[in-house]
Amino acid sequence: MKQRVLTSQQAWTDEQLEMIQAIQALGELIQDRPRRTIYRRYAIEHGWPQPETIIRQFGSWPEALSAAGYEWHIDQQPEELERAPKYTKDEILKSFHRYAQDVGSTITLKKYQIWRKSVHHAPSHYHIVKMFGSWHDACTAAGLEASVTYSKAELAASLRQAIEEVGFSLSFEAYREWAKRNNKPSTKALLHRYGSWSAAIHAIESEIRISKQHAQ
């Protein structure tokens, strides 16, 4: 993905910087140029500025993407950039099976994304997680071995520690900063395992509450 570097002459307001950082955070999560419809889904969950607010600040969604460092095709209309193909479970599984034939039965998100660039109409990580609930569940459904850096127990332990240190209702950004300071698993690793931030938080907070009840 090509990105342009923001020049030092460009001055953004604090509000605009917050919007730029939200777009960049999502781009890092999904490893793709964030579409407005995809951004809206994550903005609700993470408390990010709404896309309409961003558009009022930058004039259009493509201009906001440009400010965040993403190039966009000038010969395409904004509505064309927003249009995304839809996939059925069978189509996603067929794509995974094709990956297995080309690459092998062990799959990682990074390898899949590299492979996807050379394959016409292969579904993105966003579409896969949206359909199956999590990257891990999709890999399991396709009969592939999902190679991960951390086990589920290790991810749960990291998130549990963060909640105990920072507090309940831990936000995505708060964990992200905590993980960087403590060299812990990234938000990306948690999302791959649990499917969404809210699902991860709900699972671990429920475990903590149950443990406290048993300890009483």
Structure description:
The structure is a single chain. With 216 residues, this protein is an all-alpha fold. 64% of the residues lie in helices and 2% in strands. It has helices at 14-30, 36-46, 51-58, 61-67, 78-82, 89-102, 109-116, 125-132, 135-141, 152-166, 172-182, 187-194, 197-215; strands at residues 106-107, 145-146. It has a two-stranded parallel sheet. The longest helix has 19 residues, at 197-215. The radius of gyration is 19 Å and the shape is flat. The termini are far apart. The relative contact order is 0.10.
How is this structure best summarized?
The protein is 64% helix and 2% strand. It is mainly α and 216 residues long. A two-stranded parallel sheet has the order 1-2.
The major beta sheet can be summarized as: 2 strands, parallel
**Physical arrangement of strands within the biggest beta sheet:** 1-2
Helix count from the secondary structure assignment: 13
Mean pLDDT: 78
Give the helices and strands as they follow along the chain: HHHHHHEHHHEHHHH
Element layout with pairings:
Elements: H1 14-30, H2 36-46, H3 51-58, H4 61-67, H5 78-82, H6 89-102, E1 106-107, H7 109-116, H8 125-132, H9 135-141, E2 145-146, H10 152-166, H11 172-182, H12 187-194, H13 197-215
Parallel strand pairs: 1-2
State the main characteristics.
216 residues; mainly alpha; 13 helices; disordered N terminus
